[in-house]
Amino acid sequence: MARKISYQQAINEAMAQEMRRDETVFLIGQDIAGGAGAPGEQDAWGGVLGVTKGLYHQFPGRVLDAPLSEIGYVGAAVGAATRGMRPVCELMFVDFAGCCLDQILNQAAKFRYMFGGKAVTPFVLRAMYGAGLRAAAQHSQMLTSLWTHIPGLKVVCPSSPYDAKGLLIQAIRDNDPVIFLEHKMLYGMQGEVPEELYTVPFGEANFLREGDDVTLVTYGRMVHLAMDAAASLARQGIGCEVLDLRTTSPLDEDSILESVEKTGRLVVIDEANPRCSMATDISALVAQKAFAALKAPIEMVTAPHTPVPFTDSLEDLYIPNAAKIEAAVLKIVDKRKVA
Amino acid sequence: MTTHLSAEQLLHAYRVMRTIRVFEERLHIEFATGEIPGFVHLYAGEEASAAGVMAHLRDDDCISSNHRGHGHCIAKGVDVHGMMAEIYGKKTGVCQGKGGSMHIADLSKGMLGANGIVGAGAPLVAGAALAAKLKGTDAVAVAFFGDGASNEGAVFEAMNLAAIMNLPCIFVAENNGYAEATASNWSVSCDHIADRAAGFGMPGVTVDGFDFFAVHEAAGAAVARARAGEGPSLIEVKLTRYYGHFEGDAQTYRDMDELKEMREVRDCLKQFRDHTVAAGLLDISQLDDIDGEVERQIEDSVIKAKSDPKPPAADLLADVYVSYP
């Protein structure tokens, strides 16, 4: 039965239900309980923003606080995954990957290929990502294209509570290493989520809105801004088709191409920096494989090629918004149609 | 000398060490022909370390290794022809020709992989030990790394994690005196790598890596401690490598007279033969028989590896993922 819960609760519920179902699932990360070795409350935090709250007491011995030591505990999670366990490892902010990239890039991602197809590494790295919390340059990055670039990794960016639960359950059951990215601005978002276990498959984009004039391709938090822009454009007589990628690796190329074949126009919206991004990757894909269908140049709405600034006025300028998406669409649709 | 090892155990240890030596000396010759792709890092001279530690391990115990991994693989029971074929880049290799010398792995034997990233195996082994602990088995996990890796943050983090989580881990620092071309007595800030154990609240000991029995005894204590749930240990094994960092290294940074003395006087195989025969534990003919068997085994593995097929072109795209829609 579906009821409304938050994106954050949906993630918590996915982990709880999978831990109940499969005793090889365990959690490890910094302060995912909080209070280890301290005189006060255990499970004091339940994660820095409370996403794992309550699991420590529900699953004794399976919710492991790690020291502030990303190479150590991320590497340990990868190692445990090669020995029949299904670790869900929390990297508090995706930016901290700078500390432990080797364990993901050179170890987890490479084992299966490098060892001739014999290794199975069911490792999930959960990490908070994205701008909007005034958390500045080292706590606000996307890094989606960095993970997507690496063969051997799967990359998941849910945009709703429903997808967050179903995609995380899929990630935990998946036999490949998965980078599961949680947008910090979506944690409070409410949505209908079934109580029972279900999975959302990887590599299947979600058609959130049908339209004939332009295709908007995006993922993560930007899905909601694209939907806002599409609603506004609909009032001006412009039909937007909105595709939520859900996963950037695997990438649902077929759905992107199918939609552009229909609309003939593409706007890619990506909260990440523009160079070598999902935006440029998808633009290249469409330019290569659907060039004949294009009626106008491809547009990209992205952050600028800068670090994420701290102060609100600058961060608001940095993050793409509905008005920028709308302007990009208006640039490439036939103005006579609007009139 | 006295030992509690049976003749069978002693002969097995000798066979392991001899296999590693002949395997590596043969590679030294074969590499010079240009037929082997990439680069190889030889373990010759260090055999007592792998054999002495692995004598205590079971198939469900894990190890991680490094770029100088052939010895660890052989001692952990990885198939010798499969290793040779892998080094030659053949489909019959243990990694189907997609890993090479630096990535030989056999998870079914608890060999989590040689590793091209210095120090990277230590956190993986902490994870394997954590898995054993969570499953409630008494399996242990051993990280082999060198003096170079002993300066890596990955090793420090793994040692701290293993200590605070009381994991069944053994950290084996094989100090062969050189991290590539940099001397460990310059790059390591303390007198002994084993001294660092104190900083992580675990026992640390330095042993003579030319002496199989010294390594065996220290490893036995550390493995027993780990199996009993008493936590991790660090063993520094002091030894030398007979060849360069990689094949082709002229080793102009070394004192070659010192190396000559080590080879001629302190060699681990020579010492093992002398001591076991002098003590009446083994008969020299038993050891000579093993030498002959090993020579033939390595000869066969080289002949077969050379004639084995390369992987087919389709393998380029295979096994990136278990499944990928």
UniProtKB/TrEMBL annotation, chain A:
GO molecular function: oxidoreductase activity
Pfam families: Transket_pyr, Transketolase_C
Stored InterPro entries: THDP-binding (IPR029061), Transketo_C/PFOR_II (IPR009014), Transketolase-like_Pyr-bd (IPR005475), Transketolase_C (IPR033248)
Residue stretches making up the Transketolase-like pyrimidine-binding domain: 5-189
Source superkingdom: Bacteria
Role summary: The branched-chain alpha-keto dehydrogenase complex catalyzes the overall conversion of alpha-keto acids to acyl-CoA and CO(2). It contains multiple copies of three enzymatic components: branched-chain alpha-keto acid decarboxylase (E1), lipoamide acyltransferase (E2) and lipoamide dehydrogenase (E3).
Protein name: 2-oxoisovalerate dehydrogenase subunit beta
UniProtKB/TrEMBL annotation, chain B:
InterPro entries: DH_E1, PDH_E1_Alpha_Subunit, THDP-binding
Molecular function via GO: pyruvate dehydrogenase (acetyl-transferring) activity
Cofactors that this protein relies on: thiamine diphosphate
All residue ranges annotated as the Dehydrogenase E1 component domain in the record: 17-312
Gene3D superfamilies referenced in this protein's UniProt entry, alphabetically: 3.40.50.970
Record keywords, A-Z: Oxidoreductase, Pyruvate, Thiamine pyrophosphate
GO terms classed as biological process: pyruvate decarboxylation to acetyl-CoA
Domain of life assignment: Bacteria
PANTHER family found in the cross-reference section: PYRUVATE DEHYDROGENASE E1 COMPONENT SUBUNIT ALPHA, PYRUVATE DEHYDROGENASE E1 COMPONENT, ALPHA SUBUNIT BACTERIAL AND ORGANELLAR
Record-given protein name: Pyruvate dehydrogenase E1 component alpha subunit
Organism: Azotobacter beijerinckii
